[in-house]
Design brief:
Layout (H helix, E strand, L loop, with lengths): L2 E6 L7 H8 L5 E4 L8 E5 L2 E5 L12 E4 L4 E2 L1 H13 L8 E3 L3 E2 L2 H14 L11 H9 L12 H22 L7 H9 L2 H4 L3 E2 L1 H10 L4 E4 L24 H5 L8 E9 L2 E3 L12 H9 L12 E3 L1 E2 H11 L3 E5 L9 E10 L2 E3 L6 H6 L1 E8 L16 H14 L2 E6 L7 E3 L6
Parallel strand pairs: 1-10, 1-11, 2-5, 2-10, 5-7, 6-8, 7-9, 11-15, 14-16, 15-19
Antiparallel strand pairs: 3-4, 12-13, 16-17, 16-18, 19-20
């Protein structure tokens, strides 16, 4: 069986948890390969709602082995908080595996994230302040702390000393904050070691052996394509690779084993934080989408910026990720609108541009060119087959499919676990 990559096609919050849950009973491993607890999935199971931040959403499927791979940065306190919260609700979390090579978010990463963001003033990126960026920066600067370091006190202390040597100068002399002691960081990290030890594994080896044995492995990306540090709206991006290519580097599984790429795209568009957003609505239509779609961050609680569907972004995602299938979510949120605009191209200084501009300045100034589609008044939350959708809803989906560069294989029609219309088998 193949490895399958599941990623977000817009700026995040597309409903990847729902798509993962749809596949959960048919896969053996679900792997988080990038990011940290700076994003979240909301998964609804019956009357229960689960907000997951650091954990792969496959942890809710009893037959699945959830994996936090080497490309993730791990806040261990948050990890245990999530595990304890799920355990208290009767979810078995004993199957979780954590890569020995994943990097650790420490106290000083969180502190630096918050003070540097405030220091930027009007130039703020919109970080969540959870230490993600500073942890990745230390990884690239080769002064990071890895999960495996918690099991060698001498190495851990040496690495923390090396990291704090320069960081304390920044905190004290630039940001007027107190210095952080080596002892407090080391003691904090060591306090998690014994509980963490049974979960730690060579996850790259485990996953490759699983594929050799005919198991199905699903790689679940955090954040989304337009937040990818290389391919997103830089600098208003996350600090990791959220595109399909990141699944290989973030897990230790080669790209030639990944045969399907499923991208989740919302029936409209949202983003959190700063940065360009051509279809953003600052009017009653935007508030309609925000309220009807419950568009508030799973992790931060921040209201999301809302706008109409952007077809050039979907095509861009299809191209750079090698998308084989789209999962279109939250179609039900559009119910009740008389007309539904879709961005089909941009106007950049009077010139029509059909694809996402490579220039940051051009994209910042891009004005959407819209094509309008008729809406539908009918409630679609109980619909389970494509032919049972209202004609205007079907026409809208088919138009998006034609514009977006890959087939739309499943459609979310409500928040419940079973509220989905399947047009094509995602694994076939």
């Amino acid at each position: 069986m193949p490895a399958i990559v599941l990623i977000g096609a817009q700026w995040g919050d597309e409903g990847k948890g729902k798509a993962t849950d749809l596949l959960g009973s048919r896969v053996d491993y679900v792997v988080k390969f990038n990011g940290g607890n700076n994003a979240g999935h909301t998964v609804v199971v019956g009357s229960e709602k689960y907000a997951l931040h650091l954990l792969p959403s496959g942890i809710l499927s009893p037959e699945v082995i959830p994996v936090i791979a080497n490309g993730v940065v791990v806040d261990i306190a948050v990890l245990f908080e999530e595990l304890d919260a799920l355990s208290s609700r009767g979810v078995d979390v004993s199957r979780l595996l954590v890569s020995a090579n994943a990097h650790v978010i420490t106290q000083y990463h969180r502190t630096l994230d918050k003070v540097t963001e405030r220091f930027l003033g009007k130039r703020q990126i919109g970080t969540t302040g959870r230490g993600i960026g500073p942890a990745y920066a230390d990884k690239i600067n080769r002064v990071g702390i890895r999960i495996q370091d918690l099991f060698d006190t001498n190495i851990l202390r040496q690495k923390v000393e090396g990291a704090l040597d320069s960081k304390n100068h920044l905190l004290v002399k630039i940001y007027n904050r107190r210095a952080i002691s080596v002892d407090e960081v080391v003691e904090d990290l060591l306090s998690y070691a014994e509980r963490l030890r049974p979960m730690v594994a060579d996850t790259g080896l485990v996953l490759n052996q699983a594929l050799d044995a005919g198991k199905t492995v699903l790689f679940e990306g955090g954040q989304a394509t337009m937040l990818d540090v290389d391919h997103g709206t830089y600098p208003f991006v996350t600090s990791s690779n959220a595109t399909s290519g990141g699944a290989a580097t973030g897990s230790g599984v080669a790209p030639n084993r990944m045969e399907r790429v499923i991208a989740v795209v919302k029936a409209y568009t949202t983003r959190v934080g700063s940065g360009p957003f051509p279809t953003e609505l600052l009017d009653a239509s935007g508030e309609f989408l925000r309220v009807n779609g419950a568009e508030f961050g799973t992790t931060t609680g921040r209201p999301r910026r809302c706008g109409w569907y952007d077809a050039p972004i979907a095509r861009y995602s299809a191209r750079i990720n090698g998308v084989t299938d789209f999962v279109l979510t939250k179609l039900d949120v559009l119910t009740g609108l008389d007309r539904i605009p879709v961005c089909v191209a941009y106007d950049v200084d009077g010139i029509r541009v059909d694809e996402v501009p490579v220039s940051q300045s051009d994209f910042h100034h891009a004005m959407p060119i819209y094509e309008e589609f008729a809406g539908w008044p009918e409630d679609i939350t109980d619909v389970r087959t494509f032919d049972d959708l209202p004609k205007n809803a079907r026409d809208y989906v088919l138009a998006l499919e034609k514009m977006s560069g890959a087939r739309i294989s499943a459609i979310g029609v409500g928040p419940d676990r079973e509220a989905i219309v399947v047009r094509h088998d995602l694994l076939g």
